[in-house]
Amino acid sequence: MYLYFLGESGFKIKTERATIVIDPPHKNTGLSQSALSADIIVVSHASQTDVGRVTESEKDARPFIINAPGEYETRGVFLYAFQGKNDTVLSLIKADNLSIAHLAGISEILDDKTLELFEGAEIALVPVGGNGVLSPKLADQVISQIEPHIVIPMNFAIPKLTIARESVDTFLSEMGAKGLQAESSLYITKEKLPHEETKVVLLQVKVL
Fold first, then answer.
1. Engineering a disulfide at 88: which of 6, 84, 99, 106 sits with its beta carbon 3.0 to 4.6 angstroms away?
2. What 8-state DSSP symbol labels residue 136?
């Protein structure tokens, strides 16, 4: 499985059988992307997402769009979408024998019900930049609740972003990962998961 960061809460995930695009950034965020292709599109908050930027990955096959709570299965991907606060949709993605929690829009530690849904997810995509989402300190606490093998920060300050966010450096300091270098992508398999402690992976914003 490959993971790429598109800015804000946007990601592109390539599994063995499918390409998933989560929250392709809307132009009103200041972030521009070239055309994206996907088999599955996940929308957690419509106002900051531009589904029109995404085309089908196969000729004559429209992307499967998930924008409401429910359980979904397609192309070897199992996706569980849950209603969050502020009209957001949280999702748990299971593919390639891995589980990924996408915690879009959360701004406080998880209550017991939400924690039950995401506890034990192997990879957590977590907002860290404040201003309507988790602050760096609260993000650290949520990560301690879930205890993932890998955490990837999102919703932090990047060039051209029109939404005010804190620098990711504050979060990295909270996690004891100060000075961590960003990577262009993450390739991960079940066998490659770290087991000693939660590993922070910082991804560069990728124009695909």
1. 84
2. H
Closest CA to 41 of 61, 20, 25: 20
* pLDDT given for residue 48 in this prediction: 56
Q: Return the DSSP state at 68.
A: S
Q: Give the pLDDT mean for 138-151.
A: 97
Residue 102 falls within a domain, yes or no? yes
Q: Which of 50-54, 59-63, 200-204 bottoms out in mean pLDDT, i.e. has the lowest? A: 50-54
Question: How many angstroms separate the CA atoms of 156 and 160, rounded?
Answer: 12
- Short-list 42, 46, 12, CA closest to 26: 46
Return the pLDDT at 69: 94
Asked if residue 29 lies in contact with residue 49, where contact means CB atoms within 8 angstroms, the answer is no
Contact between 49 and 69 (Cβ < 8 Å): no
Q: Which helix (H) or strand (E) holds 10?
A: strand 10-14
Q: How many domains does the chain have?
A: 1
Burial of residue 9 (CB within 10 Å: 0-12, 13-18, 19+) is: buried
Helices (H), 149-202: 168-174
Instruction: Write down the residue that tokens 């997402």 correspond to.
Output: 49
Q: In a 3-state reduction of DSSP, which class is residue 14? A: strand
- Structural domain includes residue 74: yes
Q: Is residue 55 part of a domain?
A: yes
**CB contact at 8 A, 166 and 135:** yes
